[in-house]
Amino acid sequence: MAKTLPPSGLTTWRGPHTGRCQDRRGLPFGSSSVQHGTAVFEGIRAYASCTGETALFRAEDHLTRLLESARILGIRHDLDHALLLDEVVRAASEYGEPNCYVRPGLFATDPYLSIDLGRLSFTLGIEVWPMPAHTPETAPPGARLTVSPWHRPSPLSFPPRAKAVGTYVTSALAKTAAVDAGFDDALQLDPHSGRIAEATTSNVFIVRDWTLFTPWLTDSLLAGITRDTVITLAHELGLAIHEGPVDMEDLESAEEMFLTGTASELQPVASIDDRALPKEHPVFDMISAAFQAAVTGTRFTRQRWLTPVPTSTQVSY
Ligand SMILES: Cc1ncc(COP(=O)(O)O)c(C=O)c1O
């Protein structure tokens, strides 16, 4: 099974004051980040742009969220936004292939047995995986979803806005059970309202009457950057969009539904449990075309979302 999954292409650790530090490919097993999931991370896509260059998509927004996740958890570090951006660009450049997925994270790299994060020192690690961009031919088929009995973590237990390693156990639980039951993924509910929150690693949109609806951030979900991209593009395309409560009844009446996430991009939903959604999804197709134009730099209004990645010979170390 694991053989069908692509291994990563690059691991790099950056010292407290930038520059490469010792290769920590073997993060100590005793690290609190390994033992307790006490780390924060981001996933950023790089694409071959229409000019033939490589560009990271919304890297600045991802790094803002990384710093916010670290702040929420009380992780102390001496990295700022500019330095993080610099390191992420360097890692993508060093990797050298245009279509990839870059994961910067702040990890406790010493083998100290503590969950008092103020006593641990965190280092920036960046992992890069190959990740071909979807084309109409290679786009994944519609996702077959179920509704998971495992709810999202309560915001009273953990702030959903923080993208922290430990919280992914909940996603893993729901995803694994869904796949074992013959589905591709699961929708998870907000633990207090019982409304739809998100899928295990993506946000959710439904479409009714040419209007988009997506769960509001009041419920327990990650404020996805791709979610924000879709909202922005929908406004630009003149489509009505509502962020608000989305409940099971809304799923019943959905004419289209789709998932959004950096790694999975935009994916239509084919069915929820035994209810098939229509095979035609004109609103999804419209948004998807605008999204592809944005990530490849052909959507003029959104070029500021792209951060160019110089070739490795242009980068000085
Ligand atoms: C739980 C969860 N929700 C939503 C998303 C989508 O977020 P983004 O669009 O920022 O990748 C992710 C992506 O990793 C996720 O893990």
UniProtKB/TrEMBL annotation:
rRNA processing among keywords: no
Alphabetically ordered keywords of this record: Aminotransferase, Pyridoxal phosphate, Transferase
GO molecular function: transaminase activity
Classification via Pfam families: Aminotran_4 (PF01063)
Superkingdom of origin organism: Bacteria
Claim: Transferase is one of the keywords in the record: yes
Cofactor(s) named in the record: pyridoxal 5'-phosphate
Stored SUPFAM superfamilies: D-aminoacid aminotransferase-like PLP-dependent enzymes
Record family assignment: Belongs to the class-IV pyridoxal-phosphate-dependent aminotransferase family.
UniProt cross-references to PANTHER family, sorted A to Z: AMINO-ACID AMINOTRANSFERASE, AMINODEOXYCHORISMATE LYASE
The protein, known as: Aminotransferase class IV
